[in-house]
Design goal:
Length: 363
């Protein structure tokens, strides 16, 4: 009887462990199934041109999602990233086409592309810093704080040109401000945006897994009070995380403007949803404390394949929005199921260790 109970217990544990393994690898499984489905639904889906187009889109979602991953791991959310994409593009486009006018002196300054890029990244960092300050110093919930800055950033993007588009932002050789288009070009056949994604992913992954800062990020998401008691400067880490998210969004804004050779204030609308979906699909828990950069990149590929695949299949843009919404909800539900299963397995392991028979030692 005891042997049967032990056997059943081991079978149950094996079943739970298998289910947990499948859940952890769910993003790769979903990606493989999507690739298989769209390869049959659209004949040219697995072509080189489609792959390069996919890489271009995944780069944008992936860079945004990396910043979002850091934010979500701390237990926060950043709804402003899509608006920062639009604002960054407008800042870069405005500086290239119109320069910076000093009204007092009646002079217009034109800057080289590296200076334009640096200033644009500073704008993204400022929005991230503002998010961090509002959340940490004023105690505003991340959802509300970043929702507010989303509207502010989008409003400034509109005001920058009164809602108009900056077109043909290629610069002028005589003014020394050409070269922005390099971010939308290809190197060795690969989109520059994809190469930037790889670089940021490597740096972000190392920081998250191999440094004290990364440990602080995880500890805040796991238990903020315990992290604070153990000496972690919670407010400082949170501010830095939101700054990083803002910089990632600004990079995406620059790449987008470069690819289109134009900047529109509405660029990046709803992209925050793609970033959140990619992070959550990749295993980042909305409850905080769990997440990987590698998983997020796979999640970005899933979002990219869904988006491009549906476009190639002629699916309506409205249905695309519905499907993405369903994907986000399902990802959160599966994440919660995984957390419950992990807790159940851990509890079973503790109970088993207590009930294991101890050998009698005879003297």
């Amino acid at each position: 009887m005891k042997t049967d109970l032990t056997s059943n217990l081991h079978k149950k544990q094996s079943s739970n462990s298998l289910a947990l393994t499948l859940l952890k690898g769910r993003t790769l499984i979903v990606l493989a199934l999507l690739l298989l489905f769209f390869s049959f639904a659209t004949p040219n889906f697995l072509s080189t041109n489609t792959f390069l187009l996919l890489a271009k889109h995944v780069a944008l979602y992936g860079i945004l999602a990396i910043g979002m991953t850091y934010v979500i791991i701390t237990g926060g959310i950043d709804l402003s990233v899509g608006a920062v994409v639009g604002l960054a593009g407008m800042i870069a486009g405005g500086l290239i086409n119109n320069g910076f006018t000093l009204t007092m002196f009646g002079v217009t300054l034109y800057f080289s592309v590296p200076i334009v890029v640096l200033f644009t990244l500073m704008v993204g960092a400022f929005v991230g810093w503002l998010n961090g300050i509002i959340i940490t110093k004023f105690g505003v919930a991340p959802f509300i704080a970043t929702l507010g800055t989303m509207y502010i950033a989008r409003g400034f993007a509109m005001l920058h040109s009164n809602g108009a588009t900056y077109s043909n932002i290629i610069g002028n050789e005589a003014l020394g401000n050409t070269g922005l288009s390099v971010f939308g070009s290809r190197v060795f056949g690969m989109p520059v945006g994809a190469l930037i994604l790889v670089f940021i992913a490597i740096i972000a992954g190392i920081l998250l897994k191999k440094t004290t800062f990364g440990w602080h990020v995880f500890s805040i998401g796991g238990n903020e009070r315990a992290a604070k008691l153990s000496g972690v400067k919670v407010d400082k880490v949170k501010i830095l995380v939101y700054i990083f998210s803002g910089v990632c969004a600004a990079i995406v804004g620059i790449i987008t403007a470069s690819q289109l050779e134009a900047a529109h204030p509405a660029s990046g609308e709803t992209w925050e949803m793609n970033a959140i979906a990619a992070a959550v699909l990749g295993g980042t828990s909305m409850a905080g404390g769990i997440g990987t950069i590698g998983g997020t990149i796979i999640g970005a590929f899933v979002i990219g394949v869904i988006s491009d695949g549906m476009v190639m299949c002629g699916v309506s843009e409205f249905w695309q929005m519905i499907i993405k919404g369903v994907v986000i909800i399902l990802a959160v539900i599966v994440d919660q199921f995984q957390r419950n299963l992990q807790a159940k397995i851990a509890l079973q392991a503790r109970n088993d260790s207590k009930t294991e028979p101890k050998e009698e030692i005879k003297i």
